Amino acid sequence: MRNKMAARATALALILTLSTGGVLAATPAAAASGQPALGSVAAGASGSFELQNIQLLPDQDGNIVTFTVGVYNKSAADLSLVDYWVRLKSKTGHTYTVRLMPLDKEVKKIGANSSGQVSYYAKVGSGEKLQDLQVQFIKWDFSQPNSERILGQVSVPASYTGVTPTGQNADFQVGSSELRASTEKFTNGKNEKYYLPAISLQLENIGAAAVTLPEVKFSVRTPEGLLYPLDAKNAKDLKISPKETKTVQLSGAIPLKAGEKGWELVITRIHPELKFNTLLAAYQLPAVSKPAGGEAGKETQFMNKSGLYTAKLGGIYRLPWEDQDILTANVTLSNKGEESLPIPDMTAYFLLDNAVKVEAKLVRTGKVIGIDPGSSLSVEALGKIPYTYAFKEVKLVIQEKESDTQVNDLLELTAKPDLQQLPFVGLGAKYAREEIGRKAQYTVAEINSYEGLSGSIVSAELEIENAEKRFAPVTGLVAHFQMKDGTVFPASVSDIKKTVAPGGKARLNVWAALPKGTDMENVRLLIGDSVTLETGEGKQGEGQQTVKTDAYVRPVTFALPKEKKDVKDKLKDITLFPYTVSMSRINTSINNDVLTLKFDYDIRKQLLTETAPEGHKLVLVFEDYKGNKSFEKAYELKNWEPRDGKSAEQVTDNELRIGKKENFTIQLQDADLIFKQRFLDKYHLSVYHEFQGQRKLLAKQSIDWFTYSD
């Protein structure tokens, strides 16, 4: 009998002890889950035991039950734990072996006027339910037949879940510190087979020491007790200092048959010694976060396995394209977190009036491979519809491609017709684009019209300033002239092959044939970034003219300035951008059958400005007042650059060059002109800017024959 009692006493000493030393430290009476204690049992006049919490988790061979007992000693003497015992029973009649957690094996008594906690575990049958369990508290009493006196028992109430309610924090112990878990955001998408929960979990260190998060598991538990694991981003070895809060992104997939109501977030850890899951915290997930915004100009958020993204719809626009219309939407994805995010593998479609689905292509115009903290990425979605199709409402649905056959909805963005006005840039104002790698400012510098026998063309001079810190190519553009009544005329855009220096400029010609008499004050220039649907990328830089343009994105319209039609009466400071041309000492002479026209010229070029000189010419037109002689001479601007390092003075051919040159000579054979010499009085020398075969008069000077002009 003595041996039996000694064995029981030894077992009790092993069970009812803690790792904090010989005496348990004082602890609060509230249960760790944040719920009130389940019940208490008196241990004499000045002591008591309290069942603070109890949990049941599935295991390979059944279930694991863990529970915590609070021990209170209000007497002036130590309370010996060797004198007491606990037993776990089931309403089905089973009794289960209870063991102390390994950390709770050192303390053998509770100090005077103090309290402590003791944690236990037991393996129970797979059919047991938490609400069927009872914890008995026993005192060794050798006067009893079996040497045991039952002090009382606490049954788990039918309403008890051991789960922290929604809206409360779940606190749990990690080492010598304590963490507080709360849900910042909870979304739940779905596809054809699964719900796709995404949880932004905040962990706050409410202890006094820094803690490194151990290897824990996060799961969703359904009302049936089924556990579904969640992937945790950046949770491994996460270090949290006192009073610091870190965010862990959780995501997973739960079969639709499991339902989506009553979910709990369960945080567990494989015990390093016992090799089974122990519960750290469990709490009721809040209602699914309803995305705010979703309309143009308003931010909304979505989550996936990689983290939390902020999205904003710039607008959904309807644009002309050949015999169709383009639907295009600009979406900005931002990272407001503390770690970089990858770019999601996304697809999209437009939904017209909640009925008609239009597949969309996503295009990234910025040069980024990820989204750094505090930065953003611009994404363009585009689809095509018949230009005659009318609709009242349009939505953009963005999905994430999980596999070749599986996509998941991420967010839905909405725009109404009154939100689809294109961005407009007023007279003299600049349009700034901010995408990384393509920062630039756009403005319409001037308008020029060129007349011809077969018609006329209008050209808008679009100036682009490189706002990057590196040389950058010019983004390929698509352009239209848009009339006030909605009529559009497709325009051509000159191709700048060279890269533009930081702070430098490029001047593009955007031209089209417009009806004669068109009032340009009622016309707007519509431009957008050209894209090819084959690659889903914007076009830019040298050689891009060989790539087929399928559409355009990022539309913006410009007011057009009035055309300057003043004609200079002197051939001085004539502008053919980026050149300025001046002619002086113009004179004529006739020698036998040769007419000679000579002049000095000065051609200057504006630096740090790239242009496309192809198709541009300076045309000199010589006309005698009385019609005795006329001729013209054309000089292509693309030939004006110095060749072989030679300046204008060193060039002996009959081409104009940048720089200064004296006695530039033009000679023509005319055997009859010498006989008309006495009738020669005055002539006009005119300068035209010829573009695409059409001309605009820039200057016209009257000069006496055989004399020098100013």
| Number of DSSP helical runs | 1
CATH class annotation of the largest domain: Mainly Beta
- Note the quaternary state here: single chain
Structural domains: how many? 5
Total strands: 51
- Secondary-structure-based class equals mainly beta
The proportion of residues forming helix, as a percent range, comes to under 10%
In words, what does this structure look like?
With 710 residues, the protein is mainly β. The protein has five domains: 154 residues, Sandwich (Immunoglobulin-like), CATH 2.60.40; 115 residues, Immunoglobulins (Immunoglobulin-like), CATH 2.60.40.10; 121 residues, Sandwich (Immunoglobulin-like); 136 residues, Sandwich (Immunoglobulin-like), CATH 2.60.40; 131 residues, Immunoglobulin-like (Sandwich), CATH 2.60.40. It is built from one helix and 51 strands. Strands 33, 34, 35, 36, 37, 38, 39, 40, 41, 42 and 46 form an eleven-stranded mixed sheet that branches. Strands 12, 13, 14, 16, 17, 19, 20, 21 and 22 form a nine-stranded antiparallel sheet that branches. Strands 23-24-25-30-28-27-31-32 form an eight-stranded antiparallel sheet, with no helix packed on it. Strand 37 and strand 38 form a beta hairpin. It is rod-shaped, with a radius of gyration of 42 Å. It starts with a helix and ends in a 6-residue tail after the last strand. The N terminus is likely disordered.
